[in-house]
């Protein structure tokens, strides 16, 4: 069984993925947000300023916070390696949450884990 935080259901073979080359900026802190991302393959660094917050791999989700609170991006996401990303629009996100309550719980768990990690880093 996969980790509870896995979002692999969103990265199946028939799902369109967006390629980003290593070193490419996926989004910048302060950007408007219209989608969250699931990593289909590769690694992504999340950073605030020059400080790395976390590094994520396949089946991880990121960029979800801005969809939840409609605020600008709180961090910058950069491809460490070549990556394939599945974008989930706000409309798709709301549909997933309404149809699959467990999906909402998984997203909340990711948020809680990241908040705890950030508190340890900056606290």
Structural summary, described in words:
One of its GO terms (molecular function) is DNA-binding transcription factor activity. It holds the Pfam family cNMP_binding. InterPro entries: cNMP-bd_CS, cNMP-bd_dom, cNMP-bd_dom_sf, Env_Response_Regulators, RmlC-like_jellyroll. With 123 residues, the protein is α+β, with helices and mostly antiparallel strands. The protein has one domain (8-114): Jelly Rolls (Sandwich). The protein is built from three helices and eight strands, in the order ββββββαββαα. It has helices at residues 64-69, 90-99, 101-122; strands spanning 18-20, 25-27, 35-41, 44-48, 51-56, 61-62, 76-79, 83-89. It has a four-stranded antiparallel β-sheet with strand order 1-8-3-6. Strand 4 and strand 5 (51-56) form a beta hairpin. The termini are far apart. The mean pLDDT is 86.
Mean of all residue-level pLDDT scores: 86
- Going by helix content, strand content and strand pairing, the class is alpha+beta
Q: How many helical stretches?
A: 3
Order of helices and strands: EEEEEEHEEHH
Largest sheet: 4 strands, antiparallel
User: How many strands in all?
Assistant: 8
Main sheet strand line-up:
1-8-3-6
CATH fold assignment: Jelly Rolls
Low-confidence stretches: none
Distance between the amino and carboxyl termini: 34 Å
CATH class: Mainly Beta
- CA radius of gyration is 14 Å
- Please identify which CATH superfamily we are dealing with: Jelly Rolls
- Name of the CATH architecture: Sandwich
How many domains? The number is: 1
Pfam family, one: cNMP_binding
GO cellular component, one term: cytosol
Protein name: Cyclic nucleotide-binding domain-containing protein
InterPro entries: cNMP-bd_CS, cNMP-bd_dom, cNMP-bd_dom_sf, Env_Response_Regulators, RmlC-like_jellyroll
